[in-house]
Design brief:
By secondary structure, this protein is mostly beta strands. 0% of the residues lie in helices and 53% in strands.
Amino acid sequence: MHGVHGIELIPELGKGYTSNGLDRTVTVFEPGTLQFRKLIRYTGVKPDAIQYDPDSRRLFVVNGGASGDVTIIDPATMRSSTRWILAAPSWNRSPSTVAAARL
């Protein structure tokens, strides 16, 4: 784990996650023991902010740099399922107006 940027704990799943910006990975671990469970690779450039959404049951990892994309991880399989690029329309740079496109 190099360059840990964010951490997310999901008590109902018994899992914790860190985004590792320098490695371009996400680490899965057991929160109670801190035991390593899995290293998820190919998450995008400099994975940074990390957030679990209980409604969709997905973990969202915002990638850094100029990539402007988000990696979506399925905690049940501990694999990245897809990446989405996020961009505000050129006529409106308000953060509340964002378009998403699947990569």
